[in-house]
Amino acid sequence: MLSILSPIMRIIEIPLQALQRRFGIQRLAWAFLLPNLVLFGLFAFLPIILNVIYALTGGDNVLLGDRPFVGMQNFQTLGACSNYLDPNTCTKDLFWRAVWNTVWFVTLQVGFMVGFALLTALVLNRDIRARGFFRGVFFFPVLLSPVVVALIWKWILQRNGVLNAGLEAMGYDSFAWLVDRGWAFTWSVFLSVWAHMGFYTLILLAGLQAIPRDVYEAALMDRASPWRSFTKITLPLLSPTLLVVLVLALIKSVQVFEEVFAFTGGGPGSATTFMIQFIYQTGFAGAPRLFGLAAAASILLALVLVLLTALQLWANRRNVDG
Amino acid sequence: MKKSIMTTTALAALFMAGGMAAQAQEVRFMCYSDGNECEVYDDVLTRFEAENPGIDVIVDVVPYQAILENLPVQLAAGSGPDIAKVTDLGGLHEYYLDLAPYVDRDYWEASFGGTLDWYRGGAGDDGLYGLHSQLTITGAYINRTLFDQAGVDVPGADATWEDWAAASRAVAEATGTQFPMAMDRSGHRIAGPAISYGAQLFDEDGNPILVDEGFTNYVRQFVEWNQDGTMARDVWAGQGGSTYQDAAQEFVNGELVYYYSGSWQVSRFDRDIGDFFDWQVVGSPCGDGGCTGMPGGAGIVGFSQTQHPEAVAAVIDYLAQEDVYAEVTARTRNIPAHAAVAAAGVEYEDTSPQAAAALNAWAAQVPNISPIAYAYQGYAGNRAMFGITVQRVTQAIVGELTVDEAMDRAVSDLADAMAETQ
Fold first, then answer.
1. Is B233 near chain A, with CB under 8 Å?
2. Is A68 at the interface with chain B, CB within 8 A?
3. Residue A285 gets which letter from DSSP?
4. What band does B2 get if pLDDT is binned at 50, 70 and 90?
5. Of the CATH numbers 1.10.3720.10, 1.10.10.60, 3.40.50.720, 1.10.510.10, which one belongs to the domain with range A73-321?
């Protein structure tokens, strides 16, 4: 094999040696990094730069040359509010409705999801019958496309859906679940928890299985109650994994869009309109297309995600350092 | 040897030139269908290709959403098709190819005079930009069988919105029907009723205002009907943003007494309702401002960025010819915008007597259309106004805003939109 490769290696060596002589061994590293840097530059760095430029320009033209420079005006428009807690007092009330909807959604969805994922992982970690089957059942929704998830639940919850058929069969009145603001929001949280819980359950299950069994055996010999074992052994030893799960869930939750958009379209009114949908509607679906305002909102969202990612990196480092 | 190389090179150049010439005549037509339009265009344009061997027309069938959302971005980026079927007639004006240098202006003016302005850039623009392929009118359908079963008289031609609401409620109550009334979730749909209530939509100088007393009065009534169950609340309140939503399925299912939509539903109702029940076109109810619906529809336009303007104009001009236009209209079951075709009448193909009667009933509604409705349809910024209307009216229906707050927001949204597009 080596005998076949060596002539090829010698051919490759020729330009590399020439490059090394010309630039030195330290700078040669850049030649190896160049393909990756070009791809990163084109598909990650350039879009970020373009996004910033759009955020600093106005009008509805997509071509940068035709867009007037407006400085921070788009950010000022988004932030113009006399009371941030009341979107009706803001210039862009729909942006602040989306912000507060997202805050509530993240709080409820992450809280319920991590709680249920932990509970499920604890149950699935026990020696129960058909454990493999149940692990599959809880993980299955993760494999579904967000649009499929939305359509399944829409069929269940719509006016002539399965849930109302069941209620009517039991003698109750049907209810327009997706036309009521509170219920539409509640079901959006539920749907999202249902769709993503399996992934976090799997991570927590792996964390639980990494806890040495002899620690529990020692606790049992000391006649520790199950609750005490949970609070004094399981939770402390699981906390690094739990922290990672929490941060990952937070990042994913802030980015909520596809499934809720297909599920409720952001309604009723703006009850389930979240940040990404606001950006999409402002920049692409509405008329006129306010690319600058959408870009400014996406930069604000990116800042939140950067903070959460920093938190995740810190959590990972903390895990590695023990 | 040298001679043979030169000959080969010359032949290769000739083939390449020939190949490029063949490619140069490729015309891409981005088309969406309400029923079978793209299928019919594809068929008709096959004959055009046979008569014009140098031009190859490729009909790309896309969803309507792609026309609304993707096409404008493609055009702005300079990568759009050569021809498209569009509904944002004035909004895309800046990208249109002026067909005037390539077609018979007199024929076009005589045939499409009433709709040519919808594609133009404003006063002083006399270009020929669009072939109005489908004239549509908004208005109402009723489930006639339910009226007969309930023993409720169908209100007359001069009935008001209140008359229709009372009759629809009575029918729904007597027959146990789920919804008395419904209206498509669309700013275009609600415009006709608002104009009938006295909305002017534009000031004396022709600047858009959207909200005035007439507009507010209709919105207030509409919100009230959504809240008291007269209107099917699911249609408007069940969505967010400015997403379009119709109630055609509810009407087909016999769950709806009175459905305010438009002429383009005839094919669907003819196909899906069959003899399940009798349905009837009743046009638009009346108010202080008249009994108007909104005109509209779709048109075929060429884009100035095309490499082959003559071929594009030839394709559109072919579709504009009286015999071709009449055939397409008959096969697609649409209302003609071509004066001569409309005057001669259309013998619709594969259509039941009920659907033919419906199409004729729609055609009879054309004289009722208010000049304000024509102006609104032709206004380049109407899509922004439609979107604002849907967003804010829905917020009032679901209780996020009062009607007055919603109208204030609509005014400021319109001002923002105007500022961004100037």
1. yes
2. no
3. I
4. very low
5. 1.10.3720.10
Length of chain A: 322
What value, to the nearest 5°, has the Cα angle with vertex B125 and ends B119 and B126? Answer: 80
Task: Give the range of the structural domain holding residue B50, as residue numbers without chain letter.
Answer: 21-135+296-357
- Give B 234-273 residues with CB within 8 A of chain A: 234, 237-243
Determine the distance in angstroms separating the CA of B396 from the nearest CA of chain A, rounded to an integer: 8
Q: Is A290 on the interface with B (CB under 8 A)?
A: yes
Q: For residue B135, which phi and psi values (nearest 5 degrees)?
A: -90, 130
Provide the token pair at A143: 């494999």
Q: Indicate left, alpha or beta for B206 from its phi (over 0: left) and psi (-120 to 50: alpha).
A: left
Class of residue B17 by CB neighbours under 10 A (exposed 0-12, middle 13-18, buried 19+): exposed
Q: Which of B356, B390, B119, B383 is nearest to B244 (CA)?
A: B390
Which of B76, B387, B409 comes nearest A287 by C-beta? Answer: B387
Q: Taking 90 as the threshold, does the pLDDT of residue B154 lie above it?
A: yes
Using a CB-CB distance cutoff of 8 angstroms, which residues of chain B are in contact with residue A282? none
Handedness of CA B378, B383, B386, B392 (dihedral sign): negative
Mean pLDDT of B230-241: 93
Low-confidence stretches of chain A (pLDDT < 70) are: 1-2, 319-322
Helix axes B382-398, B403-421, angle to 10 degrees: 160
Structure-token pair, residue B336:
């003609």
Burial (CB < 10 A; 0-12, 13-18, 19+), residue A11, is: exposed
Asked whether the predicted pLDDT for residue B5 surpasses 50, the reply is no
* Tokens coding A248: 């990952």
Say yes or no: B104 and B30 in one domain: yes
CA distance B102 to A46: 43
Q: How far is A98 from chain B (nearest CA, A)?
A: 11
Neighbours of A38 (CB within 10 A): 10
Q: What is the dihedral of CA B260, B261, B263, B268, to 10 degrees?
A: -110
Based on the domain organization, do B265 and B407 belong to the same domain?
A: yes
CB B382 within 8 A of CB B296: no
* B13 inside domain: no
Please tell me whether residues B310 and B277 are part of one structural domain. no
Among residues A28, A180, A16, the alpha carbon closest in space to that of B400 is found at A180
Which residues of chain A are in CATH 1.10.3720.10 domains? 73-321
What are the DSSP calls for A201-257, one per residue? HHHHHHHHHTS-HHHHHHHHHTT--HHHHIIIIIHHHHHHHHHHHHHHHHHHHHT--
Query: Would the pLDDT of B375 be above 50?
Result: yes
